[in-house]
Amino acid sequence: MDRIEQLMKDAKPRVEEPRSAAAAAAARSIVYSADPNVVPLSGHGTARRTAVRAVGVALAAAAVVGAVVVAGGMVAPQPEPAPAGTTEATAAPSGTMTEPAPAPSESQSATTPAVLTTGGVPCTVANIDQLMNTPARAIEPIAGAEQHYYTVLGCADGWLAYSISDDGARDLQLDGGNAWYRIAKLQNGRFLFDLQAPWSTVFTWKFQALNNDVSQNGQRVTAQEAMDQEFAQKGIPVELRPRLVGEGPAFAP
Predict the structure, then answer these.
(1) Same structural domain, 188 and 133
(2) Strand pairing partners for 34?
(3) Structural domain that includes position 236
(4) Is 177 in contact with 166 (CB distance < 8 Å)?
(5) Radius of gyration (C-alpha) of the chain in whole angstroms
(6) What pLDDT, in 10s, does the model give residues 225-248?
């Protein structure tokens, strides 16, 4: 028998037959309990009422503890917090898909060079008129079938330089071939090449390099120096030379 059952048994009221005065006195001197926590007291059952209250308190405490244990078992376990510096993945809304952007094609990534302009006029072969050294002195644009023979070298401040290919010089039967660069000036929204004007032609870089040949001309100058001298002699602004015909060869042969 455990301690609680003993206390409850002791707390159960007893109905006894009347006793003699001596027996009652003897009963008051002995506590009917083997519990060492119950002490004999004089009076009318004070120790027994104290034991009853102790049993009630013990039962109440046991009930509270049991309720806490049961309630604790019913609570769902909480998830542990994620480690610092991490985030939970968010599910994408159902029915939606995100596709990667298509990579740009080569045609999209390639950049088209801007067409040179001067005075608001595009520097193209189609905008060149030629005044040839003929009795009629007619001004004619370069024919569309012949435009592929010509290449614009550069333009600046109303001046334009262009060249003709070997095939063009041969097919058009030009005197002197392609030994010269042609120079045109902007007039009335068109570039005019006037063969009779002193500024109409300059030697190409190939022939400018011949000025460095002492056996031919007895002098030694660079191709750049020779080109600048010709620009100055023919009235073409020397400072425009790099923008019209380029920098020339890196060194003379």
Answers:
(1) yes
(2) none
(3) 117-245
(4) yes
(5) 59
(6) 999 999 999 999 999 999 999 999
Q: Are residues 130 and 65 in the same domain?
A: no
121 and 31 housed in the same domain: no
C-alpha 151/C-alpha 128 separation (Å) is 11
Helices 46-74, 3-11: crossing angle, 10 deg rounding: 130
Q: Is the pLDDT of residue 46 over 90?
A: no
Question: Considering its fold, how many domains does the chain have in total?
Answer: 2
The answer as to whether 98 is a domain residue is no
Cα–Cα separations (whole angstroms), residue 247 to 48, 205, 210, 250? 124, 9, 16, 8
Asked if residue 103 belongs to a domain, the reply is no
Please check whether residues 51 and 133 belong to one and the same domain. Answer: no
Please report, rounded to a whole number, the percentage of residues in the chain having pLDDT higher than 90. Answer: 40
pTM of the model: 0.55
Domain identity same for 124 and 68:
no
End-to-end CA distance of the chain: 126
